[in-house]
Known about the structure:
3 helices; mainly alpha
Amino acid sequence: VVVLLKVLFAVMDALNDIPLLYPTLEIVGISYSIWFVNRYLLKVSTRQELGEEISSIKQQFLGE
């Protein structure tokens, strides 16, 4: 596990050294977060849809 984390951090460090990649990925993350909030969290019906989807995924993994 420790070796895996060291490799992961080394890869992330290498990616951060590439010019414009870090800000681009940051913009993508912020954009996705805005889309997710707009799509699932602003209306009651879509929050219920998200809750049902999460429950369905939990049932598939946990077998409840």
